[in-house]
Each structure stands twice: as C-alpha cells, then as structure tokens.
Design a protein that fits this description.
Number of strands: 16
Distance between the termini: 55 Å
Helix content: 40-55%
Radius of gyration: 24 Å
C-alpha cells in the first residue's frame, strides 16, 4: 500500500470520527431536513445522475461485464425515484436515537435504563449498485452515524455525483459534510486500510460477491455485519393453492433476476408436481429461463412435452445464479424440502406455499433463515418492502443484526444510571 493511500484513508477516518460526534447529538428535525433536501436534489438531478451513470455503464460494457452486473449498475428514472421514495420513507420513521426503556429502580436507590445510541462510524464496502450510496448514507444519517462509503471502481462516477448530492443536503441542514464521505480512489489497497482502521471505524458492512466477503473475512480487524449468498428457495407444498403457487413462484424468479432475494431453487412436493410444474415451467421457458432439473422433475416435465431441460448438478444446488436460470427439485415431503434448504441454503430468504397451517408453522420455526415466508414471493425480502425505508444490507449473520438491516440495526444500547448520591456498600 502506498503512503499516499494510507494517509488519505487515515484522514477520511479522522474526519468521520469527528463528524460522528456531531451526528450523535443532531436532532431528529435536523436529520430529517437533510434527508428531505437530498430527496429533492435526487429528483431535480435525475438527468444528471443518469448521464454520469451512463459513463459507468458504457465502461463496464466495454470491459465485458455480464447482463446481471450491468442491471445492478444501471440507474433508470424508476430506480432514482425509488431512491427518493426511500429517503422519504426514512423521514417518516421514528428516530431511534436517545430512546430509553422505562426506568427501573434498584434496591440500592439507583434508577436504571437502556438508551439507544449510534454505532459511531460505519464503513460500507460495496460493488456495482450505486443506489447503495443513497440508501446506506440515508440510514446511517437518520441513525446518527457517520459513514465512509467505498463503492466499486465500476460505479465511481455515479457514486461521486451521489456523494456530492448527499453532502449538499447535509450542509443545507447544518450538519457536517464529513458525516458522509465517499472514497474516490479505485485503488484496492484503500479497502485493505479501511478494514483495519479500528481507531476510526466501528463496524464494516460489506455488500458484494464471494471474493470480496472472503477477503474481508480473512483480513478485517474491524467487526462486520455481512451477508454471503442469496440462495433463496420456495417450497410448493402438497396442499398449496395452485394458482397462488404459479403466480408467486413466477414473481419470485422473474420479476428481476439480479437481486439477492430472487428465487434460485424451486422445491416441489411430488404429490402436486404433475399439476403445478407444467403450467409454471411453461411460463419460465416463455420468459427465457433455463431450467436445471433433477430426475423426477425431468420425468414430470417430459411427460408434458417439455424439451431443452438441463440436468441439475450438485454445484447447481449451491449456486446463486442472479440470472434467468432456475434449479428445480421434486421432493417427497416438507422434511426433504427443509433438509435440502438446511444443506444448500444461505440463510437468506426461504418460502413455503401452502394452505396447511401446521406445515406453515413448521416451516417458520424450523427453517433457519433471516427471512422465512408463507405464501409470498421471496422478492419481498427487502428493507423498503419491510417498511425500513431502505436497507444497508441483508445480514445472514445472527449477531449483531439479522435480515434487512435498517435503523435499529445501525444502533446499539448503553446502560444509563440515574443516581441521587447513592454509594455502593
């Protein structure tokens, strides 16, 4: 690592730490004003954002990035408006900072409570989604944190213009610009410095592929809130409503292919497979989805005249495609479905389609994932859809936060003791 990069990152860290104190004492009104200004600017500058984003998109296309990558990178008027709506939703949320549990008086006379407080300085390392710059900054801002954002080199122009918008909004509300900083170098050694700056950064949130997470797990000294794969399953139970199963499973796979909450493996009870698979798989093939199937599924579909099926391999069950590819397995019962999810799932999001309450309850209790759903598309596993305004990421971990990480996930608790001159005897 060059001395220049090290000094730059240390300076960013110092300024973020200083800004974090101002953010911790900022009023809800100030923070909401900043978010309101940012939302207004995002809408006003839609054309400018798209123009700059197109530079990133064209560069990535020249570099041979695949369709899923380009989809995550591209900012359309719709995605930009979604960012603005996310900002407004965060404004409407209750500010958790300073909230205290009811005071409890101890035998000694002291009164005890817990206060919700910011984590401090959050470092976010992400790849090709420039909307993360707005979503993450907004959540960190509302929860009273300072944030250092290090996006991927492929989105450097988009991230830079969004950072300018955020800092303009902070200044308009009388908050320090250094509360949100974007690392403007594409030198990868900046990440190496960032993940070891324990004196300045309290937690790292990585949002990216396996290689990024693996590197951070090996090298980071700063604690992390992380998520690995999004290998999401839907199990169609023997007692599922057929029309609902078709509608929900179609949406879970094809509404968008690139997000981490898209369904990657479909599990179907053998009793219902001949009824539901032909109709559903026709929809998939009409939409260009490649079907990778086990032996029982192949038999069911070929009996209905299906062709162009691919045999699923062991690797398929482990794969997050993020593309129009779906693996399908026919299972004997809910136990085989849950065993498959336990073996191959990534503890992200898994769903069951059933009208049997007992089966639904078993699935909810026994499937060990951050989001578990009944009769709903896995695509709902999202901070915006959960009413969090947006999300800083989706955590597969169990500590310190799990599932879509919103405001509460960016805070901690400290004990507050109110005394009246008591001394310990």
């Amino acid at each position: 690592m060059s001395k220049e990069i090290q000094e730059m990152m240390q300076d960013i860290g110092k300024r973020a730490r200083s800004a974090s104190r101002a953010m911790a004492r900022a009023s809800s009104e100030q923070k909401n004003q900043a978010l309101l200004h940012i939302a207004k600017l995002v809408r006003q500058k839609t054309s400018e954002i798209q123009k700059v984003n197109q530079i990133d998109v064209e560069r990535s296309q020249k570099n041979g990035q695949d369709t899923a990558f380009i989809d995550r990178l591209t900012m359309t008027p719709r995605t930009i408006e979604t960012m603005a709506l996310g900002l407004e939703q965060i404004i409407s949320l209750e500010d958790p900072i300073g909230k205290m549990t009811a005071l409890k008086k101890q035998a000694s006379g002291i009164e005890l409570a817990q206060m919700r407080v910011p984590l401090g300085v959050i470092g976010i390392i992400y790849e090709s989604r420039p909307n993360v710059t707005i979503d993450a900054a907004a959540l960190c801002l509302k929860s009273g944190n300072a944030v250092i954002l290090r996006g991927g080199s492929e989105a450097i122009d988009s991230n830079t213009v969004l950072a300018q918008i955020i800092q303009e909004g902070l200044a308009a509300a009388g908050l320090p610009k250094d509360a949100v900083q974007v690392v403007t170098t594409t030198d990868r050694s900046a990440v190496g410095e960032m993940i070891t700056m324990t004196q300045y950064i309290d937690v790292i949130v990585p949002r990216g592929g396996k290689s990024l997470i693996a590197r951070l797990m090996a090298e980071a000294r700063v604690p992390m809130i992380k998520h690995l794969d999004g290998i999401c399953h839907t199990y169609i139970d023997a007692e599922a409503d057929l029309a609902m199963a078709v509608r929900v499973c179609d949406n879970a796979k094809t509404q968008r292919y690139a997000p981490c909450n898209a369904m990657e493996t479909l599990l179907v009870n053998k009793a219902i497979a001949p009824k539901v698979l032909p109709e559903l798989c026709k929809i998939y093939q009409d939409k260009g989805v490649e079907l990778r199937v086990d032996t029982l599924t192949r038999s069911t579909l070929e009996a209905s005249g299906f062709k162009n099926l691919v045999d699923a391999t062991e690797e398929d069950w482990h794969t997050e495609y993020l593309a129009p590819i779906l693996s399908i397995k026919t299972v004997a019962d809910i136990d085989e479905a849950m065993n498959h999810i336990e073996r191959y799932g990534s503890k992200h999001t898994d769903a069951i389609i059933t009208n049997n309450k007992m089966q639904a309850d078993r699935f909810l209790r026994e499937v060990d994932s951050a989001s578990v759903m009944v009769n709903a598309s896995t695509r709902f596993a999202d901070g915006f859809e959960y009413g969090l305004g947006a999300e800083i990421g989706i955590s597969n971990d169990k500590l310190h936060a799990r599932g879509p990480v919103g405001l509460d996930g960016l805070t901690s608790l400290k004990y507050v003791v109110m005394g009246h001159g008591e001394i310990r005897t």
